[in-house]
Amino acid sequence: MSAPAIIDCHVHLHQNWGDRFSCAEVLLRHADRTGVELMCLSMGVTREVYHGSGSVEDMRRHNDEVAEVLARWPECFVGFCYLNPRFLPQSVDEIERRIAGGPFRGIKLLWDLYCDQPNLDPIATRAGELGVPIQQHTWIKATGAYRYESEPRQLATLARRHPETTFLAAHTGGNWELGIRQIADSPNIFADICGGDPEVGYAEMAVRMLGAQRVAYGSDAPGRSFASQLAKALGADLSDADRQTILSGTMRQVLDL
Amino acid sequence: MTATAIIDCNANLGNWPFRRMSYNTPEALLERLGRVGIERAWVTLLDAVMLKNVGAANPWLAELVAGREALTPVGSVNPTWPAWERDVAECAELGFAGVRVNPNYHGWELAGGELRALLSAAGELGLFVEIAVRMTDERHHHPLVMVPPTSLGGLAPIAGDHPEVPIIVANAKQGDLGPLGPGAQLPANLYFEMSHFESVGGVQTAAESLGVGRILFGTHAPYYYPESSHLKVFQECAFPEEDLAAITHGNAERLLAGLR
Predict the structure, then answer these.
(1) Nearest CA in chain B to A205
(2) Taking a C-beta distance cutoff of 8 angstroms, is the pair A182, A158 a contact?
(3) Which residues of A touch B228 (CB under 8 A)?
(4) Looking at the domain assignment, is residue A157 inside a domain?
(5) Percentages helix, strand, coil for chain A, rounded to the nearest 5?
(6) pLDDT of residue A116 exceeding 70
(7) Given an 8 Å threshold on Cβ–Cβ distance, is B139 in contact with A139?
(8) Do B200 and A236 touch (CB under 8 A)?
(9) pLDDT tens for residues B108-142?
(10) Which residues of chain B are within 8 Å of residue A30 when distances are taken between CB atoms?
(11) In chain A, which residues have their Cβ closer than 8 Å to the Cβ of B146?
(12) Nearest to B23 by CA among B227, B190, B165, B242
C-alpha cells in the first residue's frame, strides 16, 4: 500500500449512525470526499460507555464490532482496541487476543479510570512491549468533567512511568492552550488534535511547542465533521512539510507504517 | 459556481479578550478569507461583546469598514441598557445591514420582552437581527467568565409575530436547535448560519431538517479557520448545484433584498 496522504487517528463507531457496517459506510463515504485514506477506528459511542458503566461484555462487544469492520475494509481502517482498566485481567486478555494476536494496532482508553491510576501500568507496559500506541481521551473542562475523565497532565504522569510507550493525548485536552503545555515536556506523548472547534492558532501552537512530528490530525467522526478537523491542519500557518507531517507523517511513525 | 459568489455571513473584526487574534483587521481578514475564495463578508466587532457600553462599538466598526464594499457591517446592541433604541437607529444611519445581540453575555433571555422590542425597532428601520448563541466553546471559558449558551426557547413564536424582520441564528450547534421544534414549522423569517454545525455531513443534515432556504454560509473567522466551513460545504457534503448556490450566497442575497 502506498503511503496515505491523510491518516485520521481518531474515528468511532456511533449508534446514531446505525449498526457497525452502516456507520463504517458513512465514515468511508465522507472520508473519501475529504481525502482521508486511512482511519484509526475504535469502539462505539453508546449510552453505557458514555456513562462509565460499561461491563466486560460491553468492552468485548465493542471490540468485536470494530473487528468485523476491519475484516470487511482492512485497507481503510486501523483498529484500536478499547480497554476498560476497571477490569484489568480482562483488559490484558483483550490485548493478547486482539493486538498480540492481531489485527488491532493500538489501544483506546476513555474515562473508565483516571489514567494515572496503577491499573494502567500493566496495560502501558504491554503496549510498550508490543510497540502499539495508547490513545487516551483527555479533556479539561471549565464546566465540569465526567467521572474519571483525565486531563493531559494525568497522562503525562503515566507517560513518565512508561517512557518506552507511545501515547496519544486525544483532543489534547480540548482546552488546547492548556493541554499542549501539559504534555509539552513528555516526549512520548503525541497531540491528537481531534474533536474540538477549529480555532485559529491550535495547530500553530502545537507545532511550536511540540514539533510537527508530535502532532497528529484526527477528527472524532462521525460525531465531528472531517472538514472542521481537517481545517486545523489545512488552515494553519505552517510549512507544507509540517502540514503533511500532521496529516499523515506523525501517524505513519506512530503506527510504524 | 465562481468563488466570488460566496458570502461569509459570520465573520469578525477586532479583538477577543481571551486570545491573541490574527487576521482581525479588514485587510488581513479579506486576505485570509480570500485564500478560500471568499470575497464578501458580513462582519461584527468582537470587542463589542464585552464592552459595557456596547453601542460604542458601532461607530468604531463603521470607521473600520469605511470604503470597503466587500465588508457589510453588522452592529451590536444590548437591549437591556437605557436608550438602546438610539444604538439601533445609529446602526441604520451608519448604513449597517443588521444588528447582532449576545443575550447570554448581556444577561437576558429571548423569551422576555427585549427581543420583541428589538424586532419592532429593527423592523421599522429595515435591519435584520442576528442572535449569537455563543462566541466560544463553553467548556473552555475563562474560569471567572463562564457564560452558558443562549437558549433558543421561545424564539419561534416571537419570530412568527415579526415576519418582516429576518432573524439569523449564529454560532449554534444542532443540539441548540431543539427548543425551536420541527424545521418545517418554523417561521419563514428564521435563518441559520452554519459554521458550528457538526458531525459528518452535518450541514447537509441540517439543511434537510431546516430547509436549504434558511441556511447561510458563515465561517466565524478569524476565530475559526475559514477552511472549516468551506470544506464542510464544498467537500464533505454533496449538495446539488442549486442548493450550493443558495447556501453560499443566494439565501443571503434574498435576505438582504428583503430589507426595507
Answers:
(1) B20
(2) no
(3) 198, 225, 227-228, 231, 235
(4) yes
(5) 45, 20, 35
(6) yes
(7) yes
(8) no
(9) 999 999 999 999 999 999 999 999 999 999 999 99
(10) 200-201, 236
(11) 142-143
(12) B227
Set of chain A residues whose Cβ sits within 8 Å of the Cβ of B141 = 142-143
Which cell is B175 given?
443540539
Distance of alpha carbon B205 from alpha carbon A110, whole angstroms: 28
Number of domains in chain A: 1
Tell whether A1 is covered by a domain.
no
**Of A109, A209, A204, nearest to A159 (Cα)?**
A109
- With CA atoms as reference, the chain B residue closest to A17 would be B200
Domain contains A102? yes
Query: Does residue A17 fall inside a structural domain?
Result: yes
Query: pLDDT category, B260, cuts 50, 70, 90?
Result: low
Per-domain residue ranges for chain B? 3-257
For B44-67, write each residue's pLDDT tens digit: 999 999 999 999 999 999 999 999
Give the closest-approach CA distance of B157 to chain A in angstroms.
Answer: 30
Are B153 and B110 in contact by the 8 Å Cβ rule? The answer is yes
Please give the share of chain A, as a percent, with pLDDT higher than 70.
99
pLDDT tens by residue, B22-43: 999 999 999 999 999 999 999 9
Among partner residues B20, B137, B221, which is closest to A197 by beta-carbon distance? B137
Q: What is the biggest distance separating any 2 CA atoms in chain A, rounded to whole angstroms?
A: 46
On whether any CB of chain A is under 8 Å from the CB of B175, the answer is no
Question: What average pLDDT does chain B have?
Answer: 96
Partner residue opposite B231 with nearest CB, options A26, A27, A34 = A34
**Inter-chain CB proximity A139 and B142 less than 8 Å:** no
Q: What is the pLDDT of residue A53?
A: 84
pLDDT at B3 over 70: no
Q: Which three cell numbers stand for residue B13?
A: 473584526
Interface test with B, best of A181, A199, A202, A219 (most B CBs within 10 A): A199
Q: Determine the distance in angstroms separating the CA of B144 from the nearest CA of chain A, rounded to an integer.
A: 10
**What's the CATH number where A173 sits?**
3.20.20.140
Buried b (16+ CB within 10 A) or exposed e, A88-101: bebbbebbeebbee
Distance from CA of A48 to the nearest CA of B (A): 21
Which homologous superfamily does the CATH classification assign to the domain defined by B3-257?
Answer: Metal-dependent hydrolases (3.20.20.140)
Per-residue pLDDT tens for B62-117?
999 999 999 999 999 999 999 999 999 999 999 999 999 999 999 999 999 999 99
The boundaries of the domain holding residue A147 are 7-254
Residue B14 in grid coordinates:
477586532
